[in-house]
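Lab notebook: predicted structure, single chain.

Context: the supervisor wants predicted structures on file for every construct in the current expression panel, including those that have not yet been purified. This is the next one on the list. No modifications to the sequence; it matches the entry in the shared construct table.
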Amino acid sequence: MPSVSDAELIATIGRRMGRNVVRPSTTIAVYDTIELGKDRRTRFHHVRQVIRADDDGVDGILCWLEYDGPHGTPHIAPEHNCTLGMLVTLQERGQLACDLRFPHALSTGEIWSFSYMCRHEGPRPPMHEWHRTCMSRFRTVHAEVHFCRTDLPRHIEVWSQSGDHLRTEISTSARSAVLTRQDFGPGTMGLRWAW
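Prediction complete. Output recorded below exactly as produced.
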């Protein structure tokens, strides 16, 4: 993956969408739930997010997903309080960016909760990790990965990195892997496991 800053990535997405994709909002919480099937591949990835508008006129949010190029592109299905705007595929980065739109523009200080589902079509390799990059400080980030009860991983690693600080925790096999961070970001956090 080419080395490019988050600011450059957002600028590229904005140019391809033909509009400013940065909206003044603060993420209060984001909850990710991923379920794996018997084939060790993602059955679904559900995301619920809560934001606060930092200015009048916030009418949506930019999100993007990484994918495995030839192994299939993710599909995003809005579920609650949002609709799907423009999609941009960044093949050179293996990412899909989308503009999730709200039914009305938010007022300063307004709290908004929305959710969407991510699915991958086509053949994919077995999943062995998940991560989320936070470009700003999130008050709460919570992720759960649920494994098929007949095929549990041998061990699970929970990790987070913010600046030069790397934090890791190892656990034994379990039906689910859970990661929660408070006041996290900017940085990346995730879960890794071995079959």
